[in-house]
Structure formats: C-alpha cells, structure tokens
Amino acid sequence: MVDALLGEVTELLQHLIRNECVNDGTIESGHEDRSADLLDDYFSGAGLDVETYQPWPGRTSLVARIEGHDPDAPSVCLMGHTDVVPVTPDHWTRDPFGGELIDGEVWGRGAIDMLNLTASMAVATRHLALDGFRPAGTLVYLAVADEESGGHHGAAWLAEHAWDAIGTDYVLTESGGILTPSPTGPQVTVTVAEKGVAWRRLRISGTPAHGSMPFGSDNAIVKTAEVVRRLAEFRPRAQIGELWRSLVEHTVFDDDLRAALLDPEQVWDACARCDDPRTAKYWHACTHTTFSPNVVHGGIKTNVIPDVVDLDVDIRTLPGQTREDVARYLDEALGDLAGQVEVTALQNVISTSSPTDTPMWSVLERLAGAVYPGATLLPRITAGGTDAGYFRQRGSVAYGCGLMSPGVTYEQFANRFHGNDERIDVESLRLTTDLWFGVAHEFLG
Predict the structure, then answer these.
(1) Is residue 106 a contact partner of residue 32, using CB atoms and an 8 Å limit?
(2) Strand pairing category for 76-81 and 187-194
(3) CATH of the domain at 327
(4) pLDDT of amino acid 182
(5) I need a surface site. Which of 194, 199, 216, 362 has the fewest CB within 10 A?
(6) Model-level pTM?
C-alpha cells in the first residue's frame, strides 16, 4: 500500500516546499496559512474532523482527528511543522523552493526539516481515514505553524488555548530515524530529550562622546567586544547525564575516547581533538551549557561614540538547570564586567525529556527491526529545540523519530538541517510513511 502512495507523499512534499512558508522570526512572516489551506483541501472528503487555528493573520495551524472508540486507550499525535527557515538562493545548486525531484531526491528548503514528515504523516492519516480505520485510541494529525521561531504562534499557543484539540498521551515528531551501524548491531536514533532555551539580551552601557577623540573614552562597543570575548572563552563545568552516558556507551568503542567523553574533566579536550567538527559540536553541546553571542545592535552615527549596545546571546541549558544557574554562569563568565551589564530574559524554555520504558518505544523498536533486522533504538538528546517540549511540559511522552534509508547518514542529515542543498530521498519517504501506518495499526488499532 505504501509503495502505491509514494508518489502522493512526494507530490505533497513538493507542494509544501513550493508554498515557501519562510519564518524569519518576525510575526508577519511564515504565511503558514498557505500550507494549512493546502492540507485542508487534501483532507477534504476523507471523513476527518479538521479544524484550523490562527492566533495571528497568516499564522495558521491545522488539526485533523480520527476519534478513538475507547476513552481509556492511549492517544497519539503525529506532529509536523509547516514553516521553514530563510535561505540564501545563491548558495544553492537548485531552486530552494522548486521542490524538484532529481535522481530519487526531493530538493528544497524544509525537505529534511521537516516537511518530509509533515507530508508523510498527512498521507498516512488521510488514507487511514479513507480505509475506515477506527482505532481504540484517538489519532491526531497536527500541522503546526511557527516552530522555527519558538512556537509562540503555533504549538505554544495551541498548548495554552486549544489543548483539548491537540493534547495526546504520545507525540511523534522530528529529529530521528537515522540508521547507525555499530559493532553490536544496527541502531536507529530517536530523540527523547532536548536542551532548554535561555536566550538573554545583555545591555552594555558606555558614555557618548565625539568620535574624533576616542582616547580614554567609555565606548560601549569596545566594552561589548570584551564581553563577547569572555563569553566565547567561558568554560562551564561539564555535566555527564545518564542519557549522554548511554549514548557514548552505545556509539563509542575506543576505550580511551569513551573514558574521556564520560569524564567531566576531559570531555572538553576530547571535543577539541575530534577530527569531525560537527561531531565535536554535538559532543560539546550534549555535555555543556552553551553560550553563543549572535546578534548585536548599537551605535547611532560614525562620529558618535556609542553609549548603548544590545547583545543577544543564545544560551542552551542542560537537563535540571534553572534560571538561577544561567544567572550564575553569566556572572562567572563576565567577571568584573557583570555589574556593568543589564540582563533581560528573551526566552525561557526548560529542558525536557521522555522515558523509554513505554509501550510506544517497544512498538517503534519492533517496526524499526522489521525493516532493519536486529535494530534497536538509540535514545539521544538534541541541542536544538522542537515543539515536543510544549507537549512534554503537559505530561505527554514525545519522541523525535522517522525511518531514514541507509543512504542518509547522520552527517548528511545534520548538514542539511538549515543548510544548503537540503533534500530527502524518496526511499526515506516510503519507509517513514510505512512507520506511521505501523504505529497506527500496532499501537492504536
């Protein structure tokens, strides 16, 4: 059945890419109503209960439901977002919004992150409804807006204002499904946790003066440069959690390297010695609270010494860390400059995680093993954020999953996230679509 639907999944993915729902972080961007309208039309006549929600003009999310007949049975939400990050077309080999199918791959912004899942989930949901699927537990399909900018006009808003429409016991969403060979057998990654988000704006003050006489001046930009330098050099103590320990023990087979990665005193240097920059970044992010100064606003004119600079810092926290920990780290990093910096919180999202000793985990492992004999699931934490956190905070178990083809390596998957020449192969579309059917029949049916 899935083989017959592969063309439908591919075509829907192409249309979602071509809708160009680019979220640049401003409230006026996104235009996810384009894809909500597309999906509303796609579901028409399938017998699904479909609702749309628009907290701001153009920022539309869509919910489709197949109601279960047993109120005590567990419910499942298949959640995909419809917005994508901005792109520089000149850096691409192909049109980033062309949705072209070339040599068995669909090209375009969002193909990996995460329109491939949004499309495959929609096709599975529609055909389950057309086939008269009546599960014990309710199946919810959620095409959500604004994931790429924190979910304020998407999952966060829905969790607060429309929880009855989207709330489920389990949520399956993005960031997983990579086949990972190992000496103990094949493993398939599933994201079970993500770091917290603690964005901060640092306001650094100086004294205005004429730019022609800078000697001894109190220049806020010069002071900011020192703040940036201190943040870049700051080394908070590593934290070795159980999820990180499990990941290392299942993926690192050099005894000395494994020991270093599990030692809070050695893990920083182990990251520095790693030959693969992306792997080094991931190791570091999994074991440290990170600080990345990314946006600067300051100065008013070339001949005026600036008196105010705002520096926005992307801070990602590890499980268990609090706002107080973030404040303590900033004081430690800034040292004697701490008293001269005004700190404002831009975003606070706690780190969240889900257990693996669940019936859903067992079903996902069986389904993965049916495709890749002997495969087990490999739980992991993601350094970035997804909408899964809003569900975990309300008590849902959320997993980032899917099922990629053997041709999609972790390096390819990671490099194409927000990267140039983003694309997904149609075999991965087929495997992932089949996974959703398997979950529906084995877990809900």
Answers:
(1) no
(2) unpaired
(3) 3.30.70.360
(4) 83
(5) 216
(6) 0.92
